[in-house]
Write a structure and sequence with these properties.
mainly alpha; two-stranded antiparallel sheet; 11 helices; Inositol_oxygenase
Length: 334
């Protein structure tokens, strides 16, 4: 985990990271980031792993990168500092949490539900990701196609008998081609959450980024359940729009012959408040809870294969092309 937090974050205007893809848009002001982490800082002390003179570090208990099974009170140490990486991550989430509303998500389902933006194979979509670096992710600063193969290979080593699971590793971020279709990154990348109900505490930057979301001023959407019935099931929940939801819809439309576990992994792998934060239980059905361990198993490889040792993609392509031919062959509608 490479998150760097500034002791005195600037309050000046910062760039909208989505302008890389939307140069015609005006930048929006980045809000004061003095309290944008959801944990409370009680003290600063030397970091045992990096005891450099004059360097300060922050004990954090709510970092997304905590290994599976880490107790809630476990302390991780995060280097403090200022820089464009932190600014772009915060700005992306501020824009996301302001503009992802029920009406916005429904409009995106209508806009992309015809799957008429592009016709291409899975491998062509993988190659498109070479043009994208996810600006919500502090752990990756190389193209997403490499992370796709890293994730797939990590799964392949741990689960050699589940070839469908290997393919999920390759597929999981392909929905990020939305950014290359002209969508701003706050509507493509980052952790997801249900719209139509009050955001729960484990949503990243929850306390400092939802103030301007109009749904929270609407009594239909501002309670714990919002527009949903208790334990209605996540299949009936409207998730924030992004690459997870889009890729899940692409898979259904093109009739991928993968098991239900694969569809859950794709749709909910960025739903950290659920699979890691244990929130939104009031919306879950027994089926969701049965599938949760599969999503958590996938998450191990999504997080912990993010390293600078890049795979030999050309060597791996024939194996994964064979899986594509088995489960999702040919030219697909996107």
């Amino acid at each position: 985990m490479k998150v760097m937090l500034g002791l005195n974050p600037p309050t000046t205007q910062g760039p909208d990271p989505s302008l890389v893809y939307r140069p015609d848009m005006d930048p929006e002001a980045a809000k004061d980031k003095g309290s944008f982490r959801n944990y409370t800082v009680s003290s600063l002390s030397p970091c045992p792993a990096h005891p450099h003179p004059g360097e300060q570090h922050l004990p954090s208990t709510q970092l997304r990168g905590c290994p599976m099974g880490t107790p809630p009170h476990h302390t991780l140490w995060v280097c403090l500092g200022e820089g464009p990486l932190l600014d772009r991550v915060f700005t992306t989430y501020k824009l996301m949490h302001t503009h992802q509303t029920v009406d916005f998500v429904r409009s995106k389902h209508a806009q992309f539900g015809g799957f008429s933006y592009k016709r291409m194979t899975v491998m062509e979509a993988v190659d498109l990701l070479d043009r994208l670096v996810d600006e919500s992710d502090p752990d990756v600063d190389f193209p997403n196609s490499f992370h796709a193969f890293q994730t797939a290979e990590g799964i392949r080593k741990a689960h050699p008998d589940k070839d469908w699971f290997h393919l999920v590793g390759l597929l999981h971020d392909l929905g990020k081609v939305l950014a290359l279709f002209g969508e701003p990154q706050w509507a493509v990348v980052g952790d997801t959450f249900p719209v139509g109900c009050r955001p729960q505490a484990s949503v990243v930057f929850c306390n400092s980024t939802f103030q301007d979301n109009t749904d929270l001023q609407d009594p239909r959407y501002s309670t714990e359940l919002g527009m949903y019935q208790p334990h209605c099931g996540l299949d009936r929940v409207l998730m924030s729009w992004g690459h997870d939801e889009y890729m899940h819809q692409v898979m259904k439309f093109n009739k991928f012959s993968l098991p239900p576990e694969a569809f859950y992994m794709i749709r909910f792998h960025s739903f950290y408040p659920w699979h890691t934060g244990n929130d939104y239980q009031q919306l879950c059905s027994p089926q969701d809870l049965a599938m949760l361990p599969w999503v958590q198993e996938f998450n191990k490889f999504d997080l912990y294969t993010k390293c600078p040792d890049l795979p030999d993609v050309d060597t791996l392509r024939p194996y994964y092309q064979g899986l594509i031919d088995k489960y999702c062959p040919g030219i697909l509608s996107w």
